[in-house]
Amino acid sequence: MPPNESDKKLSQIKSSVFSRSLSLAKLGLGAGIKYASTKITNSSLDDFINSQALHITKEFGELKGSLMKAGQMLSMYGEHFLPPEANKALKTLQADSPPIAWTVMKKHLEDYLESSLIDELDINPDSIGSASMGQVHLAIVKSTGEKLALKIQYPDVDKAIDSDVAALKKILSISKILPKGIDLTNVFEEIKTMLRQELDYTLEAKQTYMYGELVGQDPRFIVPKVFERYSNSKVLATEYIEGLKADHSLVQNLSQQRRNKLSENFIDLYFKEIFEWNFVQTDPHLGNYKIQIDSVGNDRLVLLDFGATKKFDSQFITYYKQMIKASIVHDETLFMAGARGLGFIIDDDQADYITAFKTFCYETVEPFWAPEDARNSQQKIAPDGTYHWKTNDLPNRVVKKAIQFKNFDLRSPPQDILFLDRKTGGVFIFLSVLGAHINARKIIDPYLNNV
Fold it and tell me: Which of 156, 150, 328, 140 minimizes the C-alpha distance to 235?
């Protein structure tokens, strides 16, 4: 059984648009007043931005819903244009937020599910996972003893999406966190689209089934089955599967060889999503994966939460794969074709910008360089082709390189890039947590051959 929750339970949810708007208006007003005070006291604008980011993320975590989730999504792209400390604060929203007390959630469950169906279940009042849009409780089907992960949506979060995202954009602007001159309208529209998708548990059930069909009988992975009897648009009941998070001590104490094998399997799954299936689980934080440790070493990955799974436009994904391949094999002609196709590079761009963008992309694929690659002058890739994901400073170097783009005229990035960036960042974090020391180039090469 899951451990008892801490005392940090929330007793209510500000679910009405009015109550949420009131909180957000106060937050925005406070930001405006504090910004004005920096003009009077000559305080550092950077200090103001950083303090505002920390304050905002605390408020978002307690408001929950689309505001918190939108902040999470924005943080995954924020390295391209947000101040580093501000983006770091937004990334804290990836952590579990305080759960809602069961006395509150039970009332909402009774609104979502027929009482006769609830009576068939023995539901543990302690949540086993709380996030931005809902929380999960362990339940047992009384007649069969089957264990379920029962995800219950927070009330009315679907009704607040438009106002929440508009408020997020306004608050970030008032707080001076968003840089001047960049139009993120398309990004925020895509965030709203994904939020509506993630709140449709009927769609998530369908996507869970579809993903399971793609995985098939591959023994490396487990996708939980859906219990349709206890599922609808607000409640999702899936098979509860035992497993440990990647940062659990038992996983961390596995041999390097076993952690490497898990890492290879994980990144191979990522390549299948991008290069073969065009069906990508775009929310790859640590809580969406478990690891089953096997007594004879055949450890498996449990795959969870398919609400953010996305199929991309065929032309878009074609250009994206071209950019990946070109960046890895250093093919400038193919790179420019992909970058122009996605709108990263246009005819009017300065030569300095094009050079900076190419250099940035060529470095982000560092784990997939060949040992003999001219870019490998500092031996980031060992002679045997292996790469240390945990001890490498690539994320810091990428952030520093991204900061240079503020010197150019910024334009809104392709909408879908936001979610592929989120996926790529999550993959790197997962492999880093596992301490992967693997040859990723040999795994991606067969996929690149088909591009």
Answer: 150
> What pairing do the DSSP bridges indicate for beta strands 134-141 and 280-281?
unpaired
Predicted TM-score (pTM) of the model is 0.81
Domain that holds residue 21: 17-99+157-198
Give me the helices (H) in 92-180, please. 102-112, 115-118, 161-174
Distance separating alpha carbons of residues 148 and 29, to the nearest angstrom: 44
Q: What is the largest CA-CA distance in the chain?
A: 69
* Class of residue 170 by CB neighbours under 10 A (exposed 0-12, middle 13-18, buried 19+): middle
Lowest mean pLDDT among 52-61, 88-97, 345-354, 409-418: 52-61
Half-sphere exposure of 281 (CA within 13 A, CB side): 28
Count of domains forming the chain:
2
CB 55 within 8 A of CB 28: no
Pair (374, 274) in one structural domain:
yes
